[in-house]
Amino acid sequence: MLQEIVAFVATLSKVLRASANTVKAYRRDLLSFRQFLMDRAAARDPKCGEVKVDEIDADQVRNYLTHLMKRASRATAQRHLAAIKAFFRHREVTTGGPNPTRGLRSPRREKYLPSVLQEPEVAALIGATPEEPDRAGWRDRAMAETLYSCGLRISELVALNWADLDLEMGLVRVRHGKGNKERIVPIGEPALQALAQWRRHLPVDSGPRGPIFTNLRGARITTRSVELIVARLLARSGVANRITPHGLRHSFATHLLDHGADLRSIQEMLGHASLSTTQRYTHVSVNRLKEVYARAHPRA
Fold it and tell me: CB of 185 within 8 A of CB of 172?
């Protein structure tokens, strides 16, 4: 099984052109499934060797999902099943081997409302940089402005290059983490001003092909660093709501909807493949309407 996983992951990367994040996640999830099968086999027979893919059946996949759901969320179990299904579909097409996942349904995902900031809280977060910003302060402000102005995923933010920014049109070319697709997203004037200030303070200006956001040595910033920066801005701002960089993406979508943007436009800006993914923001706005009604109506 290990050899087949390695071959499948190579195909994902080189032939199917899946994103680096997808390749990494599928490899990790398939190796986890293999380890589960090996542990079960070793419990029955300590001399058992490598897992044989042709001997895997639907019950073993179901047992693995049950095992996962005792330790993780349904969303995690869904992701693992997606990797296993993709592995067996590819094997079925290329070798004619059996596909034990045919007909298996994913666990129903828990419904949850994304955590968002109120508009004054976003302003407080963005304004949490020092009054006289240093180099890091300008970068952090530009980063927060861009995340909220464009509704970017954190991986999309760190992948931005200066060539992706159209200053005249006020647009950003964004490369999706999913399938390396591209979309064009508007960017607001405050974010453009913050980016202009940051560019004047760049430790190393590597030209239009260089990264927009770097560490203070000039190397492209990491997603972990962005998470730490947003956490630091939150602490300075005094905002009680704990939010991640992805929470600014949720806030972007919710505030657009609150101010009259249509779902199709929001879907396009977020880069969602399905409108149903975008529709969850309507529930956030309805909840907010109910809160306003309860506070404001004399007979609520």
Answer: yes
**Nearest-angstrom CA–CA distance, 85 and 69:** 17
Where residue 98 falls (left for φ over 0; alpha for ψ -120 to 50; beta otherwise) is: beta
> Which is it for strands 182-186 and 171-175: parallel, antiparallel or unpaired?
antiparallel
The answer to whether residue 67 is catalytic is no
Segments making up each domain of the chain, as ranges: 2-95, 119-296
Residue 148 CA to residue 58 CA, distance in Å, equals 44
Active-site option among 74, 246, 280, 283: 246
Other Cβ atoms less than 10 A from the Cβ of 134: the count is 12
Q: Which CATH superfamily groups domain 119-296?
A: Intergrase catalytic core (1.10.443.10)
- The whole-angstrom separation of Cα 187 and Cα 227 is 21
Determine which one of 26, 64, 148, 281 is catalytic: 281
User: What pTM, to 2 d.p., does this model score?
Assistant: 0.64
Q: How far apart are CA 209 and CA 100, in angstroms?
A: 46
- Indicate if 281 belongs to the active site: yes
pLDDT digit string, tens, across residues 147-172: 999 999 999 999 999 999 999 899 99
Length of the chain: 300
Q: What is the pLDDT of residues 260-295, one digit of tens each?
A: 888 888 888 888 877 777 777 776 666 666 676 677
Active-site annotation holds for 153: yes
- The catalytic residue among 79, 91, 141, 249 is 249
Other CB atoms within 10 Å distance of the CB of residue 106: 15
Pick the CATH number of 2-95 from 1.10.150, 1.10.287, 3.10.450, 1.10.3860: 1.10.150
